[in-house]
Amino acid sequence: MTNEKSPVRLTAVDKPGQPLVSPELEELYRGFEKEMLVPLWIEISGLMPQHPQSKAQPHLWRWNDILPLAERSGDLVPVGRGGERRAIALANPSLGGRPFVSPTLWAAIQYLMPGENAPEHRHTQHAFRFVVEGEGVWTVVGRDPVPMRRGDFLPQAGWNWHAHHNATESPMAWIDGLDIPFQYETESQFFEFGRDEISDAERTTPERSRSQMLWGHPGLTPIGAIPAAPGTPLLSYRWEHTDQALSDQLELERLGFDGVVEPGHAAVRFTNPIGGGDVLPTIRAEFHRIRRGAETAPRREVGSSVYQVFDGSGVISVGTEKWSVGRGDLFVVPSWQEFTAKSEAGSTDSDSGGLDLFRFSDAPIFEALNLHRASN
Amino acid sequence: MTNEKSPVRLTAVDKPGQPLVSPELEELYRGFEKEMLVPLWIEISGLMPQHPQSKAQPHLWRWNDILPLAERSGDLVPVGRGGERRAIALANPSLGGRPFVSPTLWAAIQYLMPGENAPEHRHTQHAFRFVVEGEGVWTVVGRDPVPMRRGDFLPQAGWNWHAHHNATESPMAWIDGLDIPFQYETESQFFEFGRDEISDAERTTPERSRSQMLWGHPGLTPIGAIPAAPGTPLLSYRWEHTDQALSDQLELERLGFDGVVEPGHAAVRFTNPIGGGDVLPTIRAEFHRIRRGAETAPRREVGSSVYQVFDGSGVISVGTEKWSVGRGDLFVVPSWQEFTAKSEAGSTDSDSGGLDLFRFSDAPIFEALNLHRASN
Amino acid sequence: MTNEKSPVRLTAVDKPGQPLVSPELEELYRGFEKEMLVPLWIEISGLMPQHPQSKAQPHLWRWNDILPLAERSGDLVPVGRGGERRAIALANPSLGGRPFVSPTLWAAIQYLMPGENAPEHRHTQHAFRFVVEGEGVWTVVGRDPVPMRRGDFLPQAGWNWHAHHNATESPMAWIDGLDIPFQYETESQFFEFGRDEISDAERTTPERSRSQMLWGHPGLTPIGAIPAAPGTPLLSYRWEHTDQALSDQLELERLGFDGVVEPGHAAVRFTNPIGGGDVLPTIRAEFHRIRRGAETAPRREVGSSVYQVFDGSGVISVGTEKWSVGRGDLFVVPSWQEFTAKSEAGSTDSDSGGLDLFRFSDAPIFEALNLHRASN
Amino acid sequence: MTNEKSPVRLTAVDKPGQPLVSPELEELYRGFEKEMLVPLWIEISGLMPQHPQSKAQPHLWRWNDILPLAERSGDLVPVGRGGERRAIALANPSLGGRPFVSPTLWAAIQYLMPGENAPEHRHTQHAFRFVVEGEGVWTVVGRDPVPMRRGDFLPQAGWNWHAHHNATESPMAWIDGLDIPFQYETESQFFEFGRDEISDAERTTPERSRSQMLWGHPGLTPIGAIPAAPGTPLLSYRWEHTDQALSDQLELERLGFDGVVEPGHAAVRFTNPIGGGDVLPTIRAEFHRIRRGAETAPRREVGSSVYQVFDGSGVISVGTEKWSVGRGDLFVVPSWQEFTAKSEAGSTDSDSGGLDLFRFSDAPIFEALNLHRASN
Q1: Are residue D115 and residue D247 in the same domain, yes or no?
Q2: Which single residue of B145, B305, C39, C232 has CA 20 to 30 Å from C246?
Q3: ipTM of this predicted structure
């Protein structure tokens, strides 16, 4: 990650589409190397494939395997200035051991012990939290304490000051999603340290955040509120609403009306009340519910997605991989790899349910640049 | 560029901001490695720096060094299906020997011998041609033959069919710019082969392209024309207009009126007549003219730029580098590195001139995603 | 409202800014009249005033005066094909006796007797219903039955099929707002008759509309639903949400945080979840709550507004008019006339309240055309 | 145009769709009148027709009839503060003798004598000039002198200071188009007087305006220029470009390629280089060229248009009207009236030509509000 010099190395090879190997060609290639040049005819098949060839690979992280490691970090790793967060990132097995779940996305499990505080900072990387279990941590965004409970989705657009504190007697784990790899690769990131300690007023634990009081009413925009652009001013999307919205879609389907994505497959997108688009400029977040026994149609999409199983169980296929999954399990769908999800018939944990999946992706990047494609 | 497995390797180190090294910590790290996890506290300074730390470095390619290599390629490397183009890319010295001038941009010198044809293909990568010297090649975009002459800028948005043919007795070189690295890293690229040979009708060499006849009149939109989205329908921006626009700005300055960017610095952006924005969804292109003796104010910007000296001579500073430059020389300005250009007092090659610089950059990516920043 | 010929009549007058009266001038004016010409110098002060001079005037309609007339219409005027609706429009006293509350807006009281049905039709005029008292009517929009209850706001964008039916034993009155005058003046309206009778399935009276089930969840967009453009797909904005949003703003103010428009003045705008803008392309709708004893700052705005008092009492000033108002009263604020509202200190009908005002206006027209201005 | 009181007058009539006439109904209607109410059932057919029923009627003004009256005004009517402009407006024969060519548009012939100056003012009404013959007047917009010559189109967005001066020995006439009726009806207009005399520097008569030097180059945006929003920063669209663009379209058609609107019908829209949309927020301007012998397909459109014949001759049909027209003739096409134009076979005045028509309309109003419709 430093910019040390790396030479160009070119090999003349005798194969179709390549120039005839000769001493003159070798001499030309040495000239290219000396001048830091690489001919297209050597690289074209790798660089310009007929469709996306993901460097990342499909992979599953089991909640039961990673949660104990997060808990153990709670014992061994303090939270404070410098390390900033007790966050442990998923590293895609074919991305060089780096903490990148895909070429654009970061996904981590974060863990906070009773009474702990994660210090304030801000960064241009767009972020969110999603809670698969537990409660008791408040994320303090722009001095507004926002409670975190099972099923809540908490976006936090770039350059907002934020800290976390655990107000309870129990530790709590949750999922962080960010666009760290994207901003790292494209070199657009800024970071600033904030206060080491938040104020007592911010350690209050109100039932609802101020952002929710202003922006959490359906179809109603507060005329007096001035949001900090960009990204959504609504800092928490509560589970009760998400759950209701998904139940409503399946109920409409049962009554014979339109509303679901496909048979037995309800889905909502978390959106910014200002402008109606994605919650974050680089990250899309969605919640999918697949009725017991239903299965989604195979689908490929440009860009990568990470899913966490929120409830129920089922079978997931990504490219040539296939996994049985349950609560808390996380997996990545690389670019243009075929994806299907099947809800297991035997699931009885929810009347409406079946399989509940939280999903986030980098789709807004491609849509903003007219590079999005999907096939199914 | 294949997705082979790469393990996670973590080293516990005894330094500030890191947890105390202990056998238990080592055991935890082995657990992380096994589960493909990487803790943030180890990586945060590299991944989340206080401002962009470019992996690319500033670098200069001399026209007099690279043109002879292109010419020699004309002798040794045939043009045809498979290799597709006789294009030789600039490889940034600190990007691993790959043909990436920056983490997002591709810049290459392309070369076509008398009578040669480069076969038709299309790809989602957005592209342009810029001609620093010579003429006689027609680029055929969507079956519309577009002449290329010194100073012309020829954008070609993704997924347009295109081929080239050299209708003259002389070889011709020009510059290609694309977003290949960006689409490679984000895995959004598609590619398709077209006809091996273009038709006789496309080998005609009209003075003006059909796109120019329809879209090349200032402020006038043809009501009957349906453009192929996205990207500009105008396939050539002719030098005579660019030159006039820059001269006009300097003339307005001389008369005491506003118009230039800063004293002695005129500049135009190539824009899409539909929507008025950048010519390509991921690439910005500009032309800058710096009056003899003038110097631009130091400026940093998120994202990278490539410049080619079109005319005149001067001194360029990028970060800690400083070069005297002349016609045809190419250099890269990595993200957030300070840039200045000084036109040499002694230049006499143009009344209006001084130093003429063609520039392209990845700015539309950052602007579309609310990640753009500049400081000066 | 027919296009019969109307001659030009010009009078030469002897006053400053006008040409000298002479036989030659008179002859010229006769020439103008013959050729259907009118010189600017005669008309300029009326046509191009220094600020808007409203043709409409401020006016108040008392609920207690107009409701009995609506009730009486219930006895005397049948509802059916041809007349279409038992709607009685407010006629601004200085707009020629036409049913225009302002030059752009229509406001009417509509009345439906037990068991009655208003037949289906559609039109390009954008419309909404607002309920100041009562319940029991379902408005059926695109075959989706939508309940109407006190405080509910029900937008219905142009060209949606719609009918109403009263499913109860009691009559019901409500307010209709439309852009009829605007579309009449600019001649952009279309109208089509639908079915005379809605189906039994549409006579059901579900607690929630299908539109609410799909679009009524805060910040959540149904991925599978395809809305009919333009205008909001959410067909009812329920009172419970509006009330809560206004209470929340006043509560935030009490706690010392931002959120209200000005001291003691909470307000929300009804917005389209798709795009986040106004509910209707030509009509803005808002709800204002003024804390007991508070008063709004004087304000002028381009365009006209209609208010209905939903609850509480207070004193309203519009231009040189001043009225004490109570529940159900309706008034119009013409363009650029100064407006203030004062909540009466003695009101005790609501803990949070004071004065609750529903408002609609033509502001989206002016904002879309860059003609909006406000001063305060 | 003042807001004097006008009573409501209602007549109970015995016809289908109306309530039974009775003493009780008469009493109800008297109650409506007293309370300033008008029932929908009386007005619906006029207010909500099945398609636009234009209050305006098709009408033709002959250049040979109106130019002499403008010339005579030059003798009798001084230009100066108060009357502001020697502009004579076309009054549609069925719009009450008011200077409205349609319900939204103003069209006038303006006339300036040698050496005369029209004083500076500004207004929110959007305006343009179009020159059918002559030259020698400079319109000074924001202190930038802009020459006016045959075929030039000169837009001037609302709230720009502007004056005119005639620098020649000859009088000059041209056409003004504004949205005065629209802003008058909707009550959104502001007006301010500027300097009585422009400076000597503004009386210069440069070949090109500063706006043209900055914004008049195809596809090139000046990076250093800050435009005054809204409306185009390009203050003149020169005839040479318009003529070339139209010739090019017909040449493409001759060569067998796409480009024209329909056979023999070339057309361009004048557009804002910033954003690429219409030149003015409320006014669209276009130029149409119909090849000798060709005829446009019948077409209806929401909103009204005014045409001026720039060159050639032909036959125009609007609704039930039909006229032979020649240079300078002006006519109005009211909303939803069918329009066709036929170029006369015998015209020999231009190789490319046939019939050249300048057109302006209120289409941007309807497009911005989702009310536009066209049929053909």
Answers
A1: no
A2: C232
A3: 0.95
